[in-house]
């Protein structure tokens, strides 16, 4: 799955309070056509740092009425500092649900929290856990920027 610089698109959603790393437009435009919009889970690494659980949204985020398709990665980990300019590597291991609109920000936040809990549960299963150690997550030393 994608590996790209997260720098320009790292953000904290002021409404939900979640920190996300968004892949650049050129990455989103080159995703496989058969990858349906929706909420996924898997593993993510920043630079050559530790691999963490993540939840990923692929699509147009109907609540925000986005006009462009996006890929937003929420890494289930608290970083000590931002990771602008770092290489973000992800592996998608499962699907949670299709994207949908919500009647309120509270309903959206509740669904996101449910998605995070589902991801945590699924990623503890052996078939997903084994992918955490995949060589894909080990970058050459020259790509490491600030050692997450």
Automatic annotation (TrEMBL):
UniProt key word Kinase: yes
Spell out the protein name for this chain: Riboflavin kinase
Q: What does this protein do?
A: Catalyzes the phosphorylation of riboflavin (vitamin B2) to form flavin-mononucleotide (FMN), hence rate-limiting enzyme in the synthesis of FAD. Essential for TNF-induced reactive oxygen species (ROS) production. Through its interaction with both TNFRSF1A and CYBA, physically and functionally couples TNFRSF1A to NADPH oxidase. TNF-activation of RFK may enhance the incorporation of FAD in NADPH oxidase, a critical step for the assembly and activation of NADPH oxidase.
Q: Name one GO molecular function term.
A: metal ion binding
The record's listing under SUPFAM superfamilies reads: Riboflavin kinase-like
Per UniProt, the keywords (alphabetical) are: ATP-binding, Flavoprotein, FMN, Kinase, Metal-binding, Nucleotide-binding, Transferase, Zinc
Stated EC number for the protein is 2.7.1.26
Q: Which organism is it from?
A: Monodelphis domestica (Gray short-tailed opossum)
Q: Which cofactor does it need?
A: Zn(2+)
Q: Enzyme class, one word?
A: transferase
**Where does the record place the Riboflavin kinase domain?**
14-124
Q: Name one GO biological process term.
A: FMN biosynthetic process
Q: Does the keyword Phosphoprotein apply?
A: no
**UniProt pathway annotation:** Cofactor biosynthesis; FMN biosynthesis; FMN from riboflavin (ATP route): step 1/1
Q: Note the Pfam families from the entry.
A: Flavokinase
Write down the chemical reaction(s) this protein catalyses.
riboflavin + ATP = FMN + ADP + H(+)
- What InterPro entries does the record tag this protein with? Riboflavin_kinase, Riboflavin_kinase_bac/euk, Riboflavin_kinase_dom_sf
